[in-house]
Amino acid sequence: MVPVDADSRLQLVKHEANVDVPRTPVLNSVTEAAIEQIIKERNFADDLMRHDLLPSRTALFVGPPGVGKTLTARWIAQRLNKTLLTLDLAAVMSSYLGKTGTNIRSVLDYAKSGDCVLFLDEFDAIAKRRDDDAEIGELKRLVNVLLQEIDDWPSSGLLLAATNHGDLLDPAIWRRFDMVVDFPMPSTEAVEVHIRDMLASMDTGEASRKWASKVLSSVWSRYSLSDITRNINQLRRQTLLFKQDLRDSVLEVVRKESLDLPKKEKSAVAINLVRLGMSKREAERLTDIDRRKIVAAPAKRKRPAKTTSGKRSARS
Ligand SMILES: Nc1ncnc2c1ncn2[C@@H]1O[C@H](COP(=O)(O)OP(=O)(O)OP(=O)(O)O)[C@@H](O)[C@H]1O
Ligand SMILES: [Mg+2]
Predict the structure, then answer these.
(1) Nearest ligand to residue 124 Cα
(2) Category of 14 on φ-ψ map: left (φ > 0), alpha (ψ -120 to 50) or beta
(3) Angstrom distances, CA of residue 277 to CA of 76, 259, 311
(4) Among 84, 181, 225, residue to substitute to test ligand 1 (most atoms within 8 Å of Cβ)
(5) Dist. CA 207–CA 166, nearest whole Å
(6) Ligand 1 neighbourhood includes 37 CB (under 6 angstroms)
């Protein structure tokens, strides 16, 4: 039985037997490698055990909002074919911290007894309550409950947690996790891939989708993938319902977004548009950057690799 709150009788944890993630998370290579390792360690746990090793039991995902932490936790449960239990710590923090401790313990006991992935979302919710001096004692007890639970977590299950305020967390908490995985803001290339994936089902030629993803990734460079996903869906609805050409919709976005961009970024967008084949006159109309100033900086000359000290090597 899924544990419930003693007073409200509401379920304390979201229980999903068949997680269905519509698309693979777009991650940078370092994050992706860490996620693949988590999955592989689970799939090859027997091999590890034969060498006296256990798979990582716990992992903390750290990164700004909207970069795919929750999505990736779901993706892992799907790949492992396991039930996902999600405990939203922001929601479970009740005004009575004593009760919160009891609730957290009952969820973790329940999760430990089954073969599942437990996901503690909004993990920093506990740390955020620190501001209130009157609650420090209760809160310390609550953090201790959690630390104890993480320590005791069995290697048969996988515990994942996500936070976007890694700096608020007690170092004692960080140390507890077998792995800490960083989720940085996506690169322009990753955004481009994501946009192209999302446009794939559209009834326009591939060249036009490719152009659209290049243009949009440059104007949306400051947005999270979560915002970009929402914007793309909006754009798809618009082109579909109003039978608008993808190119026209994209140009409308460029015009609108340019209004809010600082001059330097606006200029970069204008240069990019020209690079992608647009006339300087059209780029000026969309971005308000004087067309005589739309000039790409000359490519930087590569410095020769230092040979004596060996300090500048593969990366130069
Ligand atoms: N890396 C990504 N790859 C693909 N889609 C993404 C990615 N990041 C975000 N999205 C899209 O944005 C939605 C919201 O992302 P998600 O909830 O995973 O972000 P989060 O990092 O958990 O944010 P928060 O810190 O606010 O909880 C996803 O369901 C997905 O549609
Ligand atoms: Mg999240």
Answers:
(1) 1
(2) beta
(3) 41, 22, 40
(4) 225
(5) 41
(6) no
Q: Which of 29, 30, 71 to mutate for ligand 1's pocket (most ligand atoms within 8 Å of CB)? A: 71
The CA distance from 156 to 42, in Å, is: 9
Locate 22 and state its tokens: 């519509």
Report which of 214, 226, 223 is spatially closest to residue 261, judged by C-alpha positions: 223
* Cβ of residue 229 lying under 6 Å from some atom of ligand 1: yes
What is the average pLDDT value for the chain, to the nearest integer? 86
For ligand 1, whether the C-beta of 68 sits within 6 Å is yes
Six token digits for residue 19: 């997680």
CA angle 157, 163, 168 (to 5 degrees): 125
CB of 25 closer than 6 angstroms to any ligand 1 atom: yes
65-116 tens-digit pLDDT: 999 999 999 999 999 999 999 998 887 776 666 678 888 888 899 999 888 9
Q: What is the pLDDT of residues 206-234, one digit of tens each?
A: 999 999 999 999 899 889 999 999 999 99
In angstroms, the CA 214 to CA 275 distance is 10
Those residues with Cβ within 8 angstroms of residue 284's Cβ, 6 or more apart along the chain or in another chain = 270, 290, 291, 294
At 203, the pLDDT band (50, 70, 90 cuts) reads: confident
Q: Which ligand is nearest to the CA of 226?
A: 1
Q: From CA 104, how far away is CA 149, in angstroms rounded?
A: 9
- Contact predicate 209/247, CB 8 Å: no
**Reported pTM:** 0.85
Which ligand 1 atom is the nearest neighbour of the CA of 71? 18
